[in-house]
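request received
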Amino acid sequence: MATEHSRTAARLMVSPAVILLFLWMIVPLGMTIYFSFLRYNLLMPGMESWTGFDNYYYFINQPSFWAALTNTLLLVGGVLCITIFGGVALALLLDQPFKGQGIVRVMVIAPFFVMPTVSALVWKNMFMNPVNGMFAHIAKALGFQPYDFLSHAPLASIILIVAWSWLPFSTLILLTALQSLDREQMDAAEMDGANWINRFIYLTVPHLTRSITVVILIQTIFLLSVFAEILVTTNGGPGTASTNLPYLVYAQSLLNFDVGGGSAGGIIAVILANIVAIFLMRMIGKNLES
Amino acid sequence: MGQITLSAVTKTFGDVNVIPPLDLSINDGEFVVFVGPSGCGKSTLLRLIAGLEDFSSGKIMIDGKDATDAPPAQRGLAMVFQSYALYPHMSVRKNIAFPLKMAKLSQAEQDKKVDNAARILNLTNYLDRRPGQLSGGQRQRVAIGRAIVREPAAFLFDEPLSNLDAALRVTMRQEISELHQTLKTTMVYVTHDQVEAMTMADKIVVLNAGRIEQVGSPMELYRTPANLFVAGFIGSPKMNFITGAEAAKHGCHTIGVRPEHIEVAPGGIWQGTVGLAEHLGSDTFLKVRTETVGELTVRVSGEMNLHHGDRVSLGPQPGKIYRFDENGKASA
Amino acid sequence: MARKTTATREAITTVAAWTIGFLIFFPILWIIILSFKSEGDAIKTPLAVLTSDWTLHSYAEVQERSNYARHFWNSVVLSLGSTIVALVIAIPAAWSMAFVPGKRTKDLLMWMLSTKMMPAVGVLVPMYLLFRDFGLLDSRIGLVGVLTLINLPIVIWMLYTYFKEIPGEILEAARMDGANLRSEILYILTPMAVPGIASTLLLNVILAWNEAFWTLQLTTSNAAPLTQFIASYSSPEGLFYAKLSAASTMAIAPILILGWFSQKQLVRGLTFGAVK
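response:
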């Protein structure tokens, strides 16, 4: 519903954004694809040569790749589980009337604003450190042996740290969604004889589906590329116990200077992300339409 | 000046033909109302005149100049929108002054014109308020004020009263009519309400599915509707249509009788039972189930004491029967 | 039926909510507390920490040892700069998509969002090499560019959802009133969308402030923002709890306060308008 004139203007005005994003997508990605077929090491400049799919072959066949792939999925899945279930529970709690709602809300949302490097360092040193960390102090006070979280359960620890950062996000969004739930609908259901479990299953959960989809979409975008938390806490170790794909690519290309191998890894990460993205976009597209 | 001529205008959205070729001319100073059911293309037609939509083909002349490709701002028209479309972040004064500011008038001239418009529209005391602080009627007046200051060749109104409550609608209707008499500027007014059309228009254009069904003065349309559609659309309550044997008696496919043209009196040609009786005070509308011609709506005097279940005898006033052929066209 | 127990129930909810809220907030509270302690006190048991003396010593030392002001300024320049550039590109784009939608508009939006899905590591190497070859490593201008691009889809999407709520009739009215495209966007759309633009700005400043992939990869010192400043504490300075806490507090305080003040506006932005 517009004139040809305004349509032309519209095309003109949307084009800078489209062109920039297109270049941003295609130029580095094209270079990555190109590098991924080269034997290319930063320590041996000028020695680049064409190797076909060798880089992919070696990247996939190194044991750390499968570890990294598993870790990536575990990390995304673990954090999503904690934040969705925790978020729903917390949102339900905060939606009840109680004293000091404003202050509690401010406290709950705070971790979202903490930059990843800070939260990782704080958890690593002040809480999970086996000598001076808070958890160690508590364990000693209760007569237990302090547990070295980052050495013995590195991935779980990182999941915990990341989940702490993202729990406020899901809580806040789900809480907002809950508050938009029609109270009259709830009252009607109560009149119809639905108890709180039924009301939760048949009214609350369907009402939250859309917001949960949004939470999953946005979090997945960010969780697939968790990097700083790993860099700061475990450096991917011990071994590859907490290495995810982004970290593996980083290690391969900038620590081992193997640009070819790193690029191949990058492309694999892009493919993985695209598989997830197609799946998510379908889901979100449907949910956002309505 | 405000003469608008549309020739062979069409509009298609994708594959949908919203307006088939259409010709229309609007004379200077006329109050023209486009009326029709929703989706009949009347708003699209107005937006085409405004320049907010492109013609698919055809030509528009404004004051003798070809304006087909002119952008909205250069057509010299002003529009009052259904939602008023006031700028919420500007005061009433700034709202009214906006077109003047766009025309790069000096501040002094802007103030003069805004004050003048505000006086005409009784807005002087509200000039510093924001649209959000005004009532529906006041917002409507601001929208009109914004249109007036441009001194346009013609005003375009897109269902301007549909967001007002019934009482206010009557007042604003009268105000717009008075404004037209004062300014004597061409006005093109879109509505789905035939009462607005009848009360305000010099000329009514009845639209249906993008086609013009009939053009004429309110009383012409009332007295001599060109077809079934116009006959059914103009006049309230709706005209009764009777087909079958009764129509055949009059030598046509369908006959129409307006509710106010049916007499309830002993010895009428139709017999029936009163179904619903709506007492408005001055008038009473009856739904009468007749034995021979189906259900009829009848308007009788409010004093007539009839109720559900009463038997009545009724018949059309002489000479007030409309005849239509099988294509719905009026036949003599 | 259960209405009588409301008071009890509220008491229980109050206790539960405050407990959980406190636990979630505790790590932040703890670093704030530690930042006001001496190094010796900071590694004591929690109870001993609380009863020890308060001092500003750590802040002084962090200030002395590293250039907090420079990193802070870099963070401000990077986050504000990238957000403003993104807004300038996004406002016209969002105008187009919201008010002159075509058949492909939804697809275009989805495609833009999908560029966010591309993992940064996928393009790390070429970006690194491009930055190296163009001499952009450790430069603010290069990083502003990258942060603009990675946040652009979100900025466009957020603005789109805000613009969608502005009735098109108002812009048409402006057009009838003689406004050209520039005036229409400048005098009508932008002022009307100020709340939406503000919350878009806020959210993206926060995202850019906390962005910790490109800022860590592409800067070392000159252009390094606070993420890099903190990462430099990862070891062995990490063992100095009080200093680490002071540095952390200074790194997160600005954005934490900003976030608290704007949490209401953030929600809508964060969900791309899907939740109101």
